[in-house]
Structures are given as structure tokens and as C-alpha cells.
Amino acid sequence: MTAKVIDGKAFAANVRAQVQDHVAKLVAEQGIQPGLAVVLVGEDPASKVYVKNKHASTIEVGMASFEHRLPAETSEADLLALVKSLNADPKVHGILVQLPLPAHLNSELIINTIDPAKDVDGFHISNVGLLGTGQKSMVPCTPLGCLMMLRDHHGKLAGLNAVVVGRSNIVGKPMAQLLLGDSCTVTIAHSRTKDLAAVCRGADILVAAVGRPEMLTGEYVKPGATVIDVGINRIERDGKAKLVGDVHYESAAAVAGAITPVPGGVGPMTIACLLANTLTACCRAHGLPEPEGLTA
């Protein structure tokens, strides 16, 4: 068996195109331009790249982009004041504080100061609770992207067995909640799960979000299963740097029915879903219908 490759890059381009169309209609028909504010504290190289890409993508789809780059020594009081000012700004519909923050800043306090309706990362405790109880919320971008791709591939997910390997607040737990919301039977597994390979082999949908390079091999995959690899790990192989997922791609692809590659799978969906969340937040703020197919 050779797995179908789920092309996240192409799927993300389609999502961004849908967002762009909706934004153009909002501007033309309502005079409303969705706005995304991104806050970067410090000089973390990876974070600087992410923020640059988010800014470019925001402008590309016709949204307003508000960048706030602060020095690493910024005080907690100053950062909280900025977040509160963005909460009060009607031109800003989405707020994202880039993580990780410098060690002297309380990330949970900062995130939970964001207006939950503008929390386009979906990390605010109110959104976590709303998602967990099946209510309307802002949904974390990476799990939302995975759900979109799964819905596109399978159609309906009801009744399928899903195993999520990883229990992080950013991916594992919200991914499980989203799959439950689509009536999957969900197991959350992790590094201490007994006989992890056997648990994974029971999955029609296997989501790998454990943060260990190529940990899940073909032996973990049920024949014909759909494998969603959230992992992005930089390793050295044959003297060269290489990006790999949490799944050993070659062996898993020989067994699975469908699989996301790394790179080019889940990764591109994260920024696409950030834009989709900003659009959704804008529509909710103005009492307008939410765009179909761009949220959970």
C-alpha cells in the first residue's frame, strides 16, 4: 500500500484564498477590514521568522496587520498595558502574543489578559473551557488545521477511532476535543502509555504530536489509517540539517491510507487557520454570519 499524500501546502493556499474572498466582501459590502495584532517580545530567531511570515500572510489576504516588536527587557506591566490597549481597539479583531516569552514574563497571565473574543490562538482559559464543553470558542490554529484536512479527506468523521499521541495544551488536548466534537472515539496516548504501538494500531486516525523525531514507525500504523504528523523536528542526517516529523514517513506511508508529509503537511495550515480565526473573530464582533468551513 502506498499512502495518499495530504498536501497541506495546497490545502492552506485554498484556505487563504477563501479568507481573501471573504475579507474582500467584508470591505466592499460592510466597510470592515479584519485586523490582526501580533506582539513579539525579544529577539528569538524562530519567533522573528514566524512573525515576519504572519505579517506577510495577513497583508496578502487584505487584512490590516499591526506589529508590536518589544525589547526582551520589556516589563510585565508594560506588556499587559499593550494587550489591554489592543483589547480596546476596535480595529483589532485578533491578538496574538508570540510564544515563548522571555523568562521574566508570566505567559499564562499575559495570554489570559487577552480578550477571549480576540484570542485567535485559542489559548485563553475561557476558550479552552468553551472548547472542552462543546461550546462556540476560538480554536487553536494547528488542531483546527488538522481537523479541516481530516474532514476534507474523510468527509464525515463520526464513528472513527482516533488516537492522539501527545497531551500538550497547544495541540494534543484541543485536537482530542475537536475529534470528540465530530463524534470520533478518541484516545489520548503519550510517552508513558503501555504498549503504545498496539494502542496506535487501533486508530483509523492517528495524530502524532509528541515532539520526538520519527518516533512512530510503520509498526504503529493500522493498514489504511490516516496519519496526521504535527511534529516539526530539526535533525542532522548525513551531515546535513533536515526537518522530520514525529512519524517515520517512509515506513508509515507504506502502511497508511493517507499521510501528511513534513515539511509541507500540517505546518502551512497553522498560519492559514490564524487568518481564518481572525476573520471569524471579526464576523462575530460585528454580528455577521461566520464563513462556512473555516472554523470548527
Describe this protein's structure.
It is a single chain. With 296 residues, this protein is α/β, with parallel strands linked by helices. 40% of the residues lie in helices and 17% in strands. The chain has helices spanning 8-30, 45-60, 76-88, 107-111, 125-132, 141-154, 172-181, 196-200, 249-253, 267-285, and strands at 4-5, 35-41, 64-70, 94-97, 161-165, 185-189, 205-208, 226-229, 233-237, 240-244, 258-259. α6 runs parallel beside α7 and α6 (141-154) packs across α10 (267-285). The model has no long low-confidence stretch (mean pLDDT 96).
Give a short overview.
By secondary structure, this protein is an alpha/beta fold. It has ten helices and eleven strands. Strands 1-11-8-7-5-6 form a six-stranded parallel β-sheet. Strands 3-2-4 form a three-stranded parallel β-sheet, with helices on both faces. The protein has a two-stranded antiparallel ribbon with strand order 9-10.
